Amino acid sequence: MKTSFVLPADIEPLSRDPKATSPGRRINLHHSMCFGCGADAPVGLRIDVIAGEGLTVSASMKVEDWMQGGPGVIHGGLLSTAFDEVMGTSPLLLRMPVVTGHLEIDYAKPIPLGSTVQFTGEILGGVRRKVYTRAVAHLGDPQEPVAAAHGLFIAIDLEKHFAGYRDRAVHPSGHQNGA
Ligand SMILES: CCCCCCCC(=O)SCCNC(=O)CCNC(=O)[C@H](O)C(C)(C)COP(=O)(O)OP(=O)(O)OC[C@H]1O[C@@H](n2cnc3c(N)ncnc32)[C@H](O)[C@@H]1OP(=O)(O)O
Predict the structure, then answer these.
(1) Looking at the 3D structure of the chain, how many domains does it have?
(2) Which of 127, 152, 129, 150 is nearest to 11 (CA)?
(3) What Gene Ontology molecular function terms does this protein carry (predicted)?
């Protein structure tokens, strides 16, 4: 599949943390109201990202009617959100919290409503706080990808990064902090 994404020349291999989620198990994410993975989000993708061997992950997503973009097919922005979730979760195999710095999607084929998209993702390496990832999506045949993505994620200090926003956080009760 064609892509314009270029990995840096100084990229270095990264290693799975020994305490990372075991292969085959769901990687527990940040909070239940997340649009990408949260079970309590009123609207969301509810993607479970499963740890694979090494620095790999996998996930699947049923394409529901509300995800429609063009007639009968998924909206491209929603697919990019799914890729963001899949790739953004993978650095937890390094036990490293990250946020998205840069995301690139290559769309190869329309994805019909009602289909189930299968994702595989992997960490390609890192440079300082930067983690480079890739993911591919298919509809059942890994030899026939429908889309692919590259993501650059930046390691953060969770407490500091969200310090100025936590009072706006929405909870399953529907209330904001302090509301
Ligand atoms: C557990 C989480 C699961 C996540 C799944 C979903 C993920 C998300 O949707 S996260 C939400 C979307 N993303 C965001 O809100 C991030 C907003 N951006 C920011 O907060 C900041 O720009 C942040 C934290 C990424 C970087 O800022 P800062 O900490 O000051 O670091 P900074 O020094 O600018 O950058 C660090 C390195 O990354 C590089 N970098 C930063 N942004 C980019 C970019 N867009 N493209 C390329 N390189 C970048 C910098 O050049 C620098 O590289 P180097 O080490 O070579 O100098």
Answers:
(1) 1
(2) 127
(3) hydrolase activity
pLDDT of residue 30: 66
pLDDT tens digits, one per residue of 118-132: 999 999 999 999 999
Pocket test for ligand 1, best of 94, 154, 158, 160 (most atoms within 8 A of CB): 154
- Taking the centre of ligand 1 as the mean of its atom positions, its distance from the CA of residue 106, in whole angstroms, is 21
Which CATH number characterizes residue 126's domain?
Answer: 3.10.129.10
Give the 3-state secondary structure of 121-139: EEEEEEECCEEEEEEEEEC
For residue 176, the model assigns a pLDDT of: 73
Range of the domain at 93: 50-168
Ligand 1 cavity residues, CB under 6 Å: 29-30, 36, 84-85, 88-89, 97, 99-102, 128-130, 152, 154, 156
On whether residue 109 sits in a domain, the answer given is yes
The pTM assigned to this predicted structure is: 0.96
The per-residue pLDDT of the chain, averaged, comes to: 95
